[in-house]
Amino acid sequence: MKSKVLITGMAGLLGSNFSRYLLKQGYDVVGIDDFSGGYKENLPKEVKCSNINLGELEAVESFFKTEKPEYVYHFAAYAAEGLSPFIRRYNYINNLICSSNLITSAINHNVRKFIFTSSMATYGAENIPPFTEDMQPKPIDPYGIAKYAVEMDLKLAHDQFGLNYSIIRPHNIIGCYQNIWDRYRNVIGIWIRKIIHHEPISIFGDGMQKRAFSDVKYYYKPFEQLMTSYNGEIFNLGADQEQTILEAAKTVQKCAADFGYKPEIQHYEPRHEAKIAFCNHDKAKRLLNFVDGTDFNQTIHDMFEWALTQPDRPVKSIDYEISKNIYSYWK
Ligand SMILES: NC(=O)c1ccc[n+]([C@@H]2O[C@H](COP(=O)([O-])OP(=O)(O)OC[C@H]3O[C@@H](n4cnc5c(N)ncnc54)[C@H](O)[C@@H]3O)[C@@H](O)[C@H]2O)c1
Description:
Elements: E1 4-8, H1 13-24, E2 28-33, E3 48-51, H2 57-67, E4 71-74, H3 88-108, E5 113-117, H4 142-161, E6 165-170, E7 173-174, H5 187-196, E8 201-204, E9 210-211, E10 214-215, H6 220-225, E11 234-237, E12 243-244, H7 245-258, E13 265-268, H8 282-288, H9 296-307
Parallel strand pairs: 1-2, 1-4, 2-3, 4-5, 5-6, 6-11, 7-10, 8-13
Antiparallel strand pairs: 9-12
Helix pairs in contact: 2-3, 3-4, 5-7, 5-9, 7-9
The chain binds nicotinamide-adenine-dinucleotide.
């Protein structure tokens, strides 16, 4: 048996997929998830995933005492970037305080390496894409601020306590097990859910925002490599091929037709977001042999097929801490 690896957020998109990969490679995998944004049904059957909210430091400490993970992949978060200004407290607790609790336990229990999924959101709107890892982060929303704060906290944890870490800044990952029942995040998932419910594909603004989507399966190998290399380094990971949201919507529309759906595209008021956001991945290609082979059509097709096997879950809504200036479609 290889090393013992903890994956937080195991019931989510990255956690459920990557844990399956690690199991196949022979690792001893354990998980933590509070199922606030992921589902028990997503978990690989052979894995123990403890229902713990990372906000509870005592529970996290007790988990580490019992399980003694050697490596930690910290994926748990509430990644609703556009919503984060309206749920500031929830955002900072879930994305910053929870991470700091996990870092505390990783220090206390001598974890060998801590791998953290930050976000492209750290770059913000002032940096000009394609973003490179050496750019000064200038996040424009509480989600990006929380991610950047955790990055800085990790550096301190290394400098003061010797905690080894690597940071990944992914963007727009897609694949099966993505939460499609949350109306605040995961644009492709939202569209697929809406289509299955015979609702139009929703676009905020004119759809000229540019994004690059990548299939989750291309992340596994570079993630695994980071377990034992590149301490203190930051890597962008994701697709090179950016497209407009409108183009993406048209592809999803075409794919929907293969499954017998004929959705229309509907435009709503624009929201506060970076218009054009994509990354340069040269560093990951050079050092991690990262190759993004995403076939957007195929991944959408796979997601559709998977979504059609899923129960008709209720759509998640959340109590806003600030309702001022909330977009009409979220009222
Ligand atoms: N998916 C993307 O496109 C993307 C892009 C950039 C960064 N990221 C980051 O990658 C990570 C994984 O993303 P994902 O798409 O798999 O997200 P996800 O929402 O599918 O999974 C996150 C999981 O974390 C769990 N969780 C949330 N808060 C928790 C808490 N307080 N305690 C315990 N568990 C908790 C949720 O229940 C969920 O299962 C996140 O940190 C996210 O910010 C994702």
